[in-house]
Specification:
Helices cover 0% and strands 39% of the residues. It is mainly β. The radius of gyration is 17 Å and the shape is globular. The protein starts with 30 loop residues before the first strand and ends with a strand.
Length: 275
């Protein structure tokens, strides 16, 4: 999720390499943490909601809340619901949610998220599954903190998504971001799909559905500094559904979209096998 503004977070945030979240199933080989979104409420031990309608550095229109109107767990999935609550087209006329994981993870892990994009009704929606460097919680600026966009989608460009990394040297602000470009996925609005990364010491591979279906690989350059490779440090997850914004609203916001539901079946972290 580009052009971010991160709120201050409580001091009890954790950095974890080998923890199991609620709903985690250790019977799954290699699983070290997960949220399966079982039950009827989201786990406050796994996630923190970020709040506000200040545009989030992207000129977004939604007000992020922790309301049950915007965050729902039912039938085994998390539902982030964007709603129109005002006349439309102005900041605060929409509500939605943005969840950040308390736990963070670094190299040597595989991350998989199974999710379904909102039903296609019109322009203006911007759901994302992404990660930010834990360093941003301790004062490091973006993009030096690092950002891993596992899946970004804008509804004016249906049937496809993007995977991208941002660092001090490679980022959209300077026009140097590295990514997959548009990845065709014709059923992205109708079906659940698996979006994943294989995060190794010297590269990150992005894939969809299967590990072998790699859509983008970002390699660590020789003699890399933090500017080129902040990915030797832990990052945490973000799940959100934005409305409008510099990218999501590039072709306007269609108020027929609402309510719009971004649905997540699970978030899983596995330990990679050592070769």
């Amino acid at each position: 999720m580009k052009r971010l503004l991160l709120l201050s977070l409580p001091l009890f945030l954790l950095t974890c390499d080998d923890s199991t979240g609620s709903g985690g199933g250790n019977e799954i080989d290699g699983l070290v943490w997960s949220d399966e979104f079982n039950g009827n409420d989201w786990d406050r031990g796994n996630w923190i909601p970020e709040l506000g309608d200040h545009g989030w550095g992207n000129n977004e229109l939604q007000n992020y809340t922790a309301s049950d109107n915007n965050i729902v767990v039912s039938d085994g999935t998390l539902k982030i619901i964007a709603r129109k609550v005002g006349d439309g087209q102005d900041p605060g006329d929409y509500t939605s949610a943005r969840l950040t994981s308390i736990q963070s993870f670094g190299p040597g892990h595989k991350m998989e998220i199974r999710a379904k994009i909102p039903e296609l009704k019109g322009n203006g929606l911007w759901p994302a599954i992404w990660m930010l460097g834990d360093a941003i919680r301790n004062g490091t600026s973006w993009p030096e903190s690092g950002e891993i966009d596992i899946m970004e989608y804008v509804s004016y460009s249906p049937d496809e998504f993007h995977a991208t990394v941002h660092t001090g040297a490679f980022n959209h602000r300077d026009g140097t971001a590295r990514g997959s470009g548009a990845v065709p996925l014709p059923d992205i609005e109708e079906e659940f799909n698996i979006f994943g990364i294989l995060w190794e010491e010297d590269n990150i591979k992005f894939y969809v559905e299967e590990e072998t279906n790699v859509i983008f690989r970002f390699n660590k350059v020789a003699n890399a500094t933090n500017d080129e490779w902040p990915f030797d440090k832990p990052h945490f997850f973000l799940l959100n559904l934005a409305v409008g914004g510099d990218w999501g609203g590039l072709q306007g916001v269609n108020d027929d979209n609402f309510p719009a539901t971004f649905e997540i079946d699970y978030v899983r972290v596995f330990e990679l096998d050592e070769e």
